[in-house]
Write a structure and sequence with these properties.
Layout lengths: L1 E3 L2 E3 L7 H4 L2 H19 L6 H12 L3 E2 H8 L3 H13 L3 E6 L2 E9 L1 H21 L5 H15 L9 H4 L2 H20 L6 H13 L2 E2 H8 L3 H13 L3 E6 L2 E9 L3 H19 L5 H16 L3
Antiparallel strand pairs: 1-2, 3-5, 4-5, 6-8, 7-8
Helix pairs in contact: 2-6, 2-9, 2-14, 3-4, 3-6, 4-5, 7-9, 7-14, 9-13, 10-13, 11-12
GO biological process, one term: response to stress
Protein name: MarR family transcriptional regulator
Pfam families: MarR_2
């Protein structure tokens, strides 16, 4: 399905209800679904930020890399990488800014203008593929909720085409939400991936390790690393299955419920703040729509 950080996600046709209610987990999976869809259907050189850069340049040229980065909601480091790849492909010209020799100005080449038009059609097709599980009304509702939720992180000059892009908006919210959740969980000694696994085990334990991988929607290799971490922290016990010595059975250790409870409180407070532009009912509806988006195999 995609890779988020150092965790490889795979398709999970059925979502564990406890996970489907967690905003952070749903945005994590939705961002991976966006990445997977782009990987499978993109033309050469296309990624969401390369496309956004060409769109932003179409509204005002030349523009500094810093201004474009701010407009499309990405870091200067990411924009520098994207600009270099676009320049190598002959889609933008990149020259020193005469007003500030430490920065660069970007301008689309004729090939870049042509690519922007081509990629626009591809972006629309990608969006249709991404939202195939949703009705037209649900897609419109999801887009509206995402625009409102993403609003605090969007610049005034974020291109209209990107404000209408579900894939772009999912990425923007995830990139804002995940680091904040990672930081908030640090005092508990766990990360978001550990939290999701603990919540899952609270509902399915005792369970084989491969079952935890299935409900989390991650690869077998990824779940080994997650369980190794949880075992080292004294939160999970792993033992051989007497009926199948090749399988590992996972159970929660006595201290796990307290950690889960504290982490759940952190999750509620942080995600309420991250989605503060929405009412509680609208935030819940957004998470429901994301669950539908990710629960259908890509």
């Amino acid at each position: 399905m995609g890779v988020r950080g150092d965790v490889e996600l795979v398709d999970a046709p059925e979502l564990l209800p406890a996970l489907a209610r967690l905003p952070g987990h749903m945005f994590w999976r939705a961002a991976a679904r966006v990445d997977q869809t782009m990987e499978e259907f993109r033309p050469d050189g296309f990624d969401i930020y390369a496309y956004a850069t060409l769109v932003a340049l179409g509204e005002a040229e030349p523009r500094s890399q810093q201004a474009v980065a701010r407009s499309i909601g990405t870091s200067r480091t990411t924009l520098a990488r994207v600009a270099a790849s676009l320049q190598a492909a002959g889609l933008v010209e990149r020259v020193r800014n005469p007003g500030d020799r430490r920065s660069y100005l970007l301008t689309r080449t004729p090939a870049g203008i042509e690519a922007a038009d081509l990629w626009q059609q591809h972006a629309l097709g990608l969006e249709d593929r991404l939202t195939a599980a949703l009705s037209r009304a649900q897609t419109s509702e999801l887009r509206s909720l995402l625009v409102r939720a993403a609003a605090p992180g969007l610049a005034e000059d974020t291109p209209a085409a990107m404000r209408a892009s579900i894939g772009f908006l999912v990425h923007q919210i995830h990139l804002r939400m995940h680091p904040a959740f990672l930081q908030a969980l640090r005092p508990l000694g766990i990360e978001p991936r550990h939290f999701g696994s603990l919540v899952s085990l609270q509902h399915i334990s005792p369970a084989p390790q491969h079952e935890l991988a299935r409900v989390m929607g991650v690869s077998g290799a990824s779940i080994v690393g997650i369980v190794d971490d949880l075992e080292a922290r004294g939160l999970v016990e792993r033992r051989r299955d007497e009926a199948d010595r090749r399988a590992q059975i996972l159970t929660l250790r006595p201290g796990a419920p307290d950690t889960i409870g504290r982490a759940m409180s952190v999750s509620r407070d942080l995600h309420a703040a991250q989605l503060a532009e929405l009412s509680p009912a609208d935030a819940e509806r957004l998470v429901e729509l994301l669950a539908t988006l990710v629960s259908v195999p890509g």
